[in-house]
Design a protein that fits this description.
This protein is mainly alpha-helical and 53 residues long. It has one domain. It has 4 helices and no strands. Helix 2 packs parallel to helix 4. It is globular, with a radius of gyration of 9 Å. The two termini are 14 Å apart.
Length: 53
């Protein structure tokens, strides 16, 4: 999946974008928990994980 589509998905479901990029891992759990605490921290973390190689 292209990075642009994953970044767009981060604005709605950051944990799903991280899951599609990296597969099941602890990072997906972090993205999910950050989204529960507040949507913006989840989005920031999701975008960070997507653009980091």
């Amino acid at each position: 999946m292209g990075k642009v589509l994953l970044i767009l998905l981060c604005f709605f479901l950051p944990w799903l974008a991280v899951l599609l990029k990296e597969g099941p891992s602890v990072r997906v759990l972090w993205a999910f928990l950050l989204q529960l605490l507040g949507h913006i921290p989840g989005v920031i973390y999701g975008i960070y994980r997507i653009i980091q190689d």
